[in-house]
Design a protein that fits this description.
The complex is a heterodimer. Chain A is an alpha/beta fold. Chain A contains 14 helices and twelve strands. The N and C termini of chain B lie far apart (72 Å). Chain B contains six helices and three strands. Classes of the chains: A alpha/beta, B alpha+beta. At the A-B interface, helix 10 of A face helix 1, strand 2, strand 3 and helix 2 of B.
């Protein structure tokens, strides 16, 4: 089993599917026109953008394609949603509610508003499985609250929040509700009306589309201050020439994920996820599952802490076996702190350093999972033998 | 990210384990920052005759622990004290800059072990002297 290459990091990014790449290809050279121009070459680009916008709107259950803004990805969508609504509503109030386990694209944007524009932000805690308690949200609402932003599913631990309920609380208090659905789209049903959301972020490269393209859903009537000044693109809400090949790729990736066989294959991913969770719990002692079980967990997400060992060492050992995964240890976060998500669950620093995330997608096979389950206990044993914290 | 030498030491770390009844132990780091190194030394006539380590930490933490045991093995205590974190990093063909401070603690563990040995050495001599005197007294009383 040498020369193996197993990719278990689909929450980080996914490869562009061949059929998606093929659809994008003519828009790099054959149909290269600027959609804002008038001649017929530009019409091809312009039509492709419109078709994509309609597809995104349809996929999300939006009433109107005008509610879709194309962006450069999840981070820009989150920035536009949070800064755009906060700045548009600042005269009404300067209080925002979010959670402690948001992606940094939301967390750091909220901190930016606190530091530079005198907003106040409430960071809701989560329980030991990563859930926000709707009662906590109700209690945090103030007369000057203008925005609530809570992610749909967590990128590290896969917890799927009760968004419909949280959105309902926001709306019954006349507060704008945004959700970062970057990890959810094409994995679990996402319908903006069912979810009671006003703004929703998504990113194509998480579901076999290209990098550098995403979208923000903005419910009609939602006030939004543009964050990019320039031309009149995207109905003056996001200046800049459209990334036409990317937009075509986003559309093609959504169509790919809508296919019946792809939808049905999610059950197989859930089976593989649960096989990994159960086998790890059976075979590796002092292993702690992060996040919930069952249908409140993203289909492809597995996240464990292995006590007495450190995450980067695990990743390096897995890489030597040809397996690509990720960790929330300090070494992989680029700071001295381990994952803020794991700390918010109540894990100690020492335990949080020993985390491992596996994220599966349609390309993964049971054979790959079995190979991983065979190699992982050996790696954990090897590192524990080396650890001064481990007493046999 | 890591040099071949770091990866080589990480994959095949030298001198992993504990020494029974060590003459000196040095421990640095803490679980909060994610790196703990523990060094065990056997010392005879001022020479490090055996050295082993146990480490909780990242690739750099393991590789620097392994390297420091190689550098210190067979050295007298004065030369061993001259090994610095920089010496260890150089011997590994360098470390990524973000690892220089958080995961390059092996030389400090070695220095701590030697200091531990020297102060414990003083204690042992004292207590042995005391014991000797007590024995003498007992003998005299008889």
């Amino acid at each position: 089993m040498d020369e193996k290459s197993i990719y278990f990091d689909h929450a980080a990014t996914t490869p562009v599917a061949p059929e998606v790449k093929e659809e994008m290809d003519p828009y790099f050279d054959k149909y290269f026109g600027n959609p804002s121009s008038l001649y017929s070459l530009a019409m091809d680009s312009s039509r492709a953008v419109t078709r994509a916008r309609e597809k995104v709107a349809d996929f999300l259950g939006a009433d109107n394609e005008r509610e879709i803004i194309f962006t450069s990805g999840g981070t820009e969508s989150d920035n536009l949603a949070v800064k755009g609504t906060a700045m548009a509503l600042k005269d009404k109030g300067k209080h925002i509610i979010t959670s402690e386990i948001e992606h940094h694209a939301v967390l750091h944007t909220c901190q930016y508003l606190e530091d530079n524009l005198d907003f106040e932000v409430t960071y809701l805690p989560v329980d030991d499985e990563g859930f926000v308690d709707p009662q906590d949200l109700k209690k945090a609402i103030r007369p000057d609250t203008v925005l609530i932003t809570i992610m749909m599913a967590n990128n590290e631990i896969g917890t799927i929040q009760p968004i419909a309920k949280l959105g309902q609380i926001a709306h019954s208090n006349d507060i704008i509700f945004h959700t970062d659905a970057v990890q959810s789209v094409a994995k679990v049903p996402v319908d903006v009306d069912d979810l009671n959301v006003d703004l929703l972020s998504l990113s194509a490269h998480k579901f076999n589309g290209p990098k550098g393209i995403g979208a923000l859903y903005v419910r009609q009537g939602t006030k939004l201050l543009p964050q990019m000044q320039g031309g009149a693109q995207e109905k003056k809400r996001r200046a800049g020439t459209e990334n036409v090949p990317g937009i075509v790729g986003l559309r093609a990736a959504l169509e790919l994920n809508e296919k019946k066989e792809r939808q049905e294959d999610i059950q197989r991913i859930i089976y593989l996820r649960d096989k990994i969770i159960n086998k790890i719990e059976d075979n590796i002692d002092a292993s702690i599952l992060n996040g919930p079980r069952g249908d409140k967990r993203l289909p492809g997400n597995v996240n464990f802490c292995f006590r007495y060992i450190e995450g980067e060492s695990m990743l390096l050992n897995l890489d030597m076996k040809g397996i690509a995964a990720s960790s929330g240890s300090a070494c992989t976060s680029g700071s001295l702190e381990p994952s803020h998500v794991l700390l918010a669950l109540g894990r100690s620093h020492e335990v949080a350093h020993g985390s491992l995330r596996v994220s599966l997608n349609h390309s993964n096979t049971e054979k790959e999972v079995d190979y991983f389950l065979e190699e992982l206990p050996k790696i954990v044993d090897k590192l524990r033998d080396m650890s001064p914290l481990y007493e046999g | 990210m890591y040099s071949d030498k770091v990866m080589e030491h990480f994959n095949n770390p030298r001198n992993v384990g504990e020494i029974e009844n060590p003459d000196a132990v040095g421990e640095v780091g803490n679980p909060v920052c994610g790196d703990i190194m523990k060094l065990f030394l056997k010392i005879e006539d001022n020479i490090i005759t055996d050295i082993k380590f146990k480490t909780f930490g990242c690739g750099a933490a393991v590789a620097t622990s392994s390297m420091v045991t190689e550098l210190a093995q067979g050295k007298d205590l004065e030369s061993a004290l001259e090994i610095t974190n920089e010496t260890v990093a150089e011997a590994l063909d360098g470390l990524p800059s973000q690892k220089m401070h958080c995961s390059n603690l092996a030389a400090e563990a070695l220095q701590e072990a030697i200091e531990d040995y020297r102060s414990a050495g003083d204690d042992t001599e004292e207590s042995e002297n005391q014991k000797g005197q007590e024995t003498k007294k007992t003998v005299e009383a008889k």
